[in-house]
Specification:
By secondary structure, this protein is mostly helical. The protein has one domain. 86% of the residues lie in helices and 0% in strands. It has 2 helices and no strands. α1 runs antiparallel to α2. The protein is rod-shaped. The N and C termini lie close together (10 Å). It comes from Sporolactobacillus spathodeae. This is YrhC-like protein. Keywords: Membrane, Transmembrane, Transmembrane helix.
């Protein structure tokens, strides 16, 4: 295994970890937006939903990046 292949493998592992973290965080924030306690505060629901959507997009980006890096490997 060459140095470049090791670097690509390490980057794939980092992207996978970061993507999973973003996915878990987006699920946590989405569940938080469903709680009836925050229904009286629409701005909080909007922030939670927007953050959840943003982290979901980040997770999709990292999984796309992993697929591109696997093509290089």
């Amino acid at each position: 295994m060459t140095e470049q292949q090791r670097k690509i493998a390490a980057t794939i592992i980092d992207c996978r970890r970061t993507g999973l973290f973003c996915l878990y965080l987006s699920a946590f924030l989405y569940v938080g937006s469903l709680l009836p306690k925050f229904a009286a505060f629409p701005e909080k629901v909007a922030v939670l939903s927007g953050s959840s959507f943003g982290f979901t997009l980040l997770a999709i980006f990292f999984y796309w990046r992993i697929s591109r890096l696997k093509e290089l490997d």
